[in-house]
Known about the structure:
The complex is a heterotrimer.
Chain A: H1 3-11, H2 15-43, E1 54-59, E2 67-68, H3 71-76, E3 81-89, E4 92-94, E5 104-107, H4 109-115, H5 123-131, E6 135-139, H6 140-146, E7 153-158, E8 164-173, E9 182-185, H7 186-192, E10 198-199, E11 201-206, H8 211-222, E12 230-234, H9 235-245, H10 249-277, H11 280-289, H12 293-325, H13 328-331, H14 343-370, H15 373-378
Parallel strand pairs in A: 5-9, 6-8
Antiparallel strand pairs in A: 1-11, 1-12, 2-10, 3-5, 3-11, 4-7, 6-9, 7-8
Helix pairs in contact in A: 1-12, 2-10, 2-12, 2-14, 10-14, 12-14
Chain B: H1 5-14, H2 16-48, E1 55-60, H3 73-80, E2 95-106, E3 113-121, H4 123-127, E4 133-137, E5 146-150, H5 151-154, E6 165-168, E7 171-180, E8 189-193, H6 194-200, E9 208-212, H7 216-228, E10 234-238, H8 239-244, H9 250-282, H10 284-293, H11 297-323, E11 330-335, E12 340-345, H12 350-377, H13 380-385
Parallel strand pairs in B: 3-8, 5-7
Antiparallel strand pairs in B: 1-9, 1-10, 2-3, 2-9, 4-7, 5-8, 6-7, 11-12
Chain C: E1 5-18, E2 21-34, E3 38-42, H1 49-56, E4 64-69, E5 72-73, H2 79-89, E6 90-93, H3 105-110, H4 120-133, H5 149-161, E7 167-171, H6 179-194, E8 198-202, H7 206-209, E9 214-219, E10 222-224
Parallel strand pairs in C: 3-8, 3-9, 6-7, 7-8
Antiparallel strand pairs in C: 1-2, 1-4, 4-5, 9-10
Amino acid sequence: xxxxxxxxxxxxxxxxxxxxxxxxxxxxxxxxxxxxxxxxxxxxxxxxxxxxxxxxxxxxxxxxxxxxxxxxxxxxxxxxxxxxxxxxxxxxxxxxxxxxxxxxxxxxxxxxxxxxxxxxxxxxxxxxxxxxxxxxxxxxxxxxxxxxxxxxxxxxxxxxxxxxxxxxxxxxxxxxxxxxxxxxxxxxxxxxxxxxxxxxxxxxxxxxxxxxxxxxxxxxxxxxxxxxxxxxxxxxxxxxxxxxxxxxxxxxxxxxxxxxxxxxxxxxxxxxxxxxxxxxxxxxxxxxxxxxxxxxxxxxxxxxxxxxxxxxxxxxxxxxxxxxxxxxxxxxxxxxxxxxxxxxxxxxxxxxxxxxxxxxxxxxxxxxxxxxxxxxxxxxx
Amino acid sequence: xxxxxxxxxxxxxxxxxxxxxxxxxxxxxxxxxxxxxxxxxxxxxxxxxxxxxxxxxxxxxxxxxxxxxxxxxxxxxxxxxxxxxxxxxxxxxxxxxxxxxxxxxxxxxxxxxxxxxxxxxxxxxxxxxxxxxxxxxxxxxxxxxxxxxxxxxxxxxxxxxxxxxxxxxxxxxxxxxxxxxxxxxxxxxxxxxxxxxxxxxxxxxxxxxxxxxxxxxxxxxxxxxxxxxxxxxxxxxxxxxxxxxxxxxxxxxxxxxxxxxxxxxxxxxxxxxxxxxxxxxxxxxxxxxxxxxxxxxxxxxxxxxxxxxxxxxxxxxxxxxxxxxxxxxxxxxxxxxxxxxxxxxxxxxxxxxxxxxxxxxxxxxxxxxxxxxxxxxxxxxxxxxxx
Amino acid sequence: xxxxxxxxxxxxxxxxxxxxxxxxxxxxxxxxxxxxxxxxxxxxxxxxxxxxxxxxxxxxxxxxxxxxxxxxxxxxxxxxxxxxxxxxxxxxxxxxxxxxxxxxxxxxxxxxxxxxxxxxxxxxxxxxxxxxxxxxxxxxxxxxxxxxxxxxxxxxxxxxxxxxxxxxxxxxxxxxxxxxxxxxxxxxxxxxxxxxxxxxxxxxxxxxxxxxxxxxxxxxxxxxx
Lengths: 381, 387, 225
């Protein structure tokens, strides 16, 4: 028997307690990892391939305010602008779902394909989209969820516009960071609402990264002091402003994480200290046999660290497997579509486990240090 | 026949070093549960609180919120003279057409931007909403670019104080007064003159129409009449019903709360289990003695279950206690339905406290079941012999 | 009634399994104990004296034979019946006192009475009587840790007496006491036996055995001499 197996045998002496300790660490770390993954998904939106060269233009009043269609030629004339498309939120309800989980947008199919470069779709399908006014294209995730096929007809009742429109699915696209959305022809929308000559927002592709700053300022400038002032910003900035609208969600989830970690450490540390206190007698015997304090500390630390790490493997590892190999869109019904367990998150989990291992060892270590052999042997409890 | 409860209670306190961590653990789990549920309750309450049962809210059919609804001028005129509508002192129908616009404004302390719900409202409209009270400054003057803001929003957004001004739609608005919506949805709105709003934001149509009737029954009749009128593609319901249905944002919060409570309670159950196993382990001789004295297995089982439940209950009580200071604390969140910032308060009701305590007792019972069974099954003699 | 047999044991055996080996703790023991006796069981370690005591007290079962206490064959009672029987008929005194640490002396003595239907006043009366008998009335509200070893054991004896059982059974009652306290406790047991209680005591100490009225020796599970 080596020191290592001695420690192992000791730890597993009370299998039930060891199991409970490991499981409680595992469950709490699984929860922590889940919270960190969810937090990241909510606050760090995935960056689309083409996003670096795209600009969103919305009304300065708010995104809910519309912009006049006559702004388009003015924007198109700005040097550095490659393509401009209307991009209007339809807000449609599908069947009688209370909350529809996929967005629908009215766009100009001709320019849209130049902007939405990461969406992959067959050329024939897209041709149909361009030519048939009632056609639409749908993302793979939504198509899978509702089992849509090209040729299907679907009906959506807008909560924003006073219309219900029927669309024919021309094709299914995939390859973007959000394969849930539906895109249709904005001419169809305009016809149906009596052509008010408005769009929700403009979606713009710039020629190169260098062009981005001056295009943005040119657009903002072009409509300054008009009846329809705009806010143009990079797509990334736009996504982040949405998140900032959600207020202190970071703070909220962050504080829950802190509470979870604190509870975990508290509970698991006391459990492990309890386990060690029970074995004072043995530790006293070891001391009598000649083991030094330092070696006893090592035993204690090795055991608590080992239990904590095992728990971490189960909890963090389990979460990693679930979120990396599982279909998160399926599991959350389309609310979350990606769930990346980054090295940073893994690191945080294992860091918490290590701290736990160390903290749990502190109280027993102090008690062992203070214990005289005679008193330790007397311990009957 | 049972062991006296004092036995269990005293044991929990005597073994405080071992039980403290578990009590704190349960306390934190219950606190998280209570706080999150109280957020949802606060959101729902401010919706349910809102509205006068005699008022009828009319929006476009198919829209889910005022901000995305349009009611045309002609439709407004048809509504104005419907039978059953109450009249004011001068004999004019108590009807108000509002213009609701979402505007993006900066929060205080550089905390980013958010959408604020602006309501262009007529003097009649103010009268129809007696829940809103002016607490500072004065009401806006019709014809001027003046605005009053709710007290709760004033705490959160820049320039929202009497004398403050901000720009939107290319025009500058002056803040002349502060209102208190008394814990209703109006706590999340800012108001200005309807005609001014229409001119600033270039709106032809109204967003919604609010109508006062003589009684709640008369209100129902007016709502039915509007909905069945083929000329009016509108949706009508009691104002109280309209706001009561705007609680969708509370749903994900409740789901989050239940999920978190469940997940954290697993850890708490393990903690309780461990504590109780240790308790049983250190009292085997005691248990044997009780058996010798004539106490049956079941009495031992029940005794340890009670001890575990009591232990967890202490944690639950502590958890509720540390949550209580948050009652009434105002927070804001992005409301999916109105698409704007909604302010509400944490609301800890007695029922929620009871739920928290019951939850903690269940955690204690589940956690001590196996240890209690172990205690009950101890053979008498080995219990006596144990060290 | 003094003089009658209160305990009748016939052909009592106890064999138990330790690992893979059959161990004979008791072999064919037959014994009569009269009411009012102060009987000591003596023998070396492993002689079966404690096992015999446990069977008489109803906390262990023999593998063969019978044991009648006041004409009740305790070996035929089921577990619940045994629990009730013990509560009413046996008072057990342990070497390690076994008082409940969180309960006061009064509450410890009251414990067996909580299993009866007696009302609070009746219980109080019996507890106070028992405490008086052992001379610890002023310590009624002290916790065990506030008592000396000798006082703890006397509280334990009070607890054993509180239901007025017919049998008082003691397993090495003075093993954890200093000689003065041991003397006091043994004297107390003697007094109780002289006033009519039947006392059965296991001990390895001949000086303690001297307090009894009769001594029996056990060796390797059998009665010797």
